[in-house]
Amino acid sequence: MQPDQPETTVLLVDDHALVREGLREILGYQDDMVVVGEAGDSQGAVEQTAEKRPHVVLLDIEIPGDDATTTVARIRQRSPHTAVLILSMYEGPELLQSLLDVGVRGYLLKSVTKQELVSAIRSVRFDKDRVVVSVSRESIAGGGQSDPGGPPMILSDREREVLELTAQALSNRQIAAQLSLTEATVKRHLRNIFVKLGAASRIDAVNKAVEGALIEVGERRQAAHR
Fold first, then answer.
1. Buried b or exposed e, range 92-115, using 16+ CB within 10 angstroms
2. In the Cβ-directed half-sphere of 128, how many Cα atoms lie within 13 Å?
């Protein structure tokens, strides 16, 4: 760190305390970075950003509250100079593009190395024009190649079951128990659903599926099964 350069302040946003602890430990080894706050949901992310005005927010794609695109928009409204870096287990051109459209400065899969994470934080802090994207080549190549006149993306029967239970606010563990699946299988179905629908969160996926009449929720679902 140069003598005239202040430390890069970072806000950690993830609903898993263990993940936040791991990130805090990684960044704690960097003499030019300091974690100034943590949040576990979208509202906390916005409030902490407004209060701390960090240089960078590390934002998990799937946290309780608003979907990621709404959360990013609210963060940028409250602190325009804060750079938002998305951390995600999911990839897909539609999802990536929707987040770039609201001004994220980076999109990193959680499979990135510690060195790649630290490098991304430094890049978006000191290069205001830099956007850091770490996804598969197939994901990037898929952007803009969809055929608007082609057939709609169809969910499998199992994916619809998973998403309908997700709409009931069930956790992955509860969904797994109800469908006699493992949690890992539920997560895999949700990843596939996110990619197919171009969704940024569980709520976003449910809303898009309802709008596209892919699933039935609430009273409509109960009436259909009477």
1. bbbbbebbbebebbbbbbeeeeee
2. 3
